[in-house]
Specification:
Blueprint: H1 3-37, H2 43-73, H3 77-85, H4 90-103, H5 109-118, H6 125-139, H7 141-150, H8 158-168, H9 170-180, H10 188-197, H11 202-210, H12 216-229, H13 234-243
Helix pairs in contact: 1-2, 2-4, 3-4, 3-5, 4-6, 5-6, 6-7, 6-8, 7-8, 8-9, 8-10, 9-10, 10-11, 10-12, 11-12, 12-13
């Protein structure tokens, strides 16, 4: 970021804090001064100071986030990814990745995925690549799935794409899973779809789970449903497997 931009950002934060302080003091009036003078509770003043600090901290975080966005926007996506890969702090690196993915256009994800496969960050690349495919699924799930078909080494991320897609468009994700599956065996794609919708649409997830033949995939779907039902209470989660009848 240019030096002038940094100065402007810091000036904006200072102005925001000063404005908040002025409004707080103005709102307190003379009565607050009298109350403190006679031994009143100073908690109001403390609360005002805390409020100023809170607003100031929020402003700093917004500026820092914008700084990261601008930093990635000035270079090619693959170059930005290379810089992020050099961040040694895992928390900061993943936060930078999330901000970076937010800047990508749908047609930029494939090049970033290609570059990601060339990188290795102390064994964390595989896990962090899941974030890439989750973001890609929000932008263009069909393109993400097509990429995985063309690059089998990324196949472990198909489930993440399907689950993310199903959470926002369950009908489309279910149709893809049905059309993609071949043969009479259990549909391995449907488990990911169920995992994606279980937390939002238990009846639909239950319907899909019940339609699956007894199999490892069905067991995974039941497990996903049980985890989602934990949000409704432990008893509901434990009782759910017994509601799935073997109709096959």
């Amino acid at each position: 970021m240019k030096k002038s931009t940094i100065i402007a950002s810091h000036a904006a934060i200072f102005a925001l804090g000063a404005g908040a302080a002025f409004l707080t003091l103005k709102g307190s009036g003379r009565s607050g001064e009298t109350s403190n003078a006679v031994g009143g509770n100073p908690s109001g003043a403390q609360s005002s100071r805390d409020g100023i600090l809170e607003h100031g901290t929020a402003a700093v975080k917004r500026v820092q986030r914008e700084d990261r966005r601008l930093a990635t926007g000035r270079t090619r996506p693959t170059e930005s990814l290379g810089k992020i890969n050099k961040i040694t702090d895992a928390y900061e690196r993943q936060r930078a990745l999330m901000d970076f993915y937010d800047t990508l256009a749908p047609d930029q994800f494939a090049a970033v995925a290609d570059e990601f496969q060339k990188l290795n960050h102390y064994g964390n690349t595989g896990t962090e690549m899941e974030l890439l495919f989750q973001a890609w699924a929000k932008a263009d799930p069909m393109a993400a799935l097509d990429y995985i078909d063309e690059n089998p080494e990324t196949g472990r991320n198909r489930g993440e794409v399907l689950a993310t897609w199903a959470a926002s468009d369950p009908a489309a994700a279910e149709k893809w899973a049905v059309d993609k599956h071949q043969g009479d065996g259990p549909n391995p794609y449907m488990t990911s779809v169920i995992r994606g919708i279980a937390a939002y649409d238990i009846p639909n997830a239950s319907r899909l789970t019940a339609s699956m033949p007894s199999s490892r995939e069905r067991g995974q779907a039941i497990d996903a449903m049980a985890k989602a039902l934990l949000m409704s209470g432990t008893e509901a989660a434990f009782a759910f497997p017994d509601t799935i009848k073997d109709e096959h």
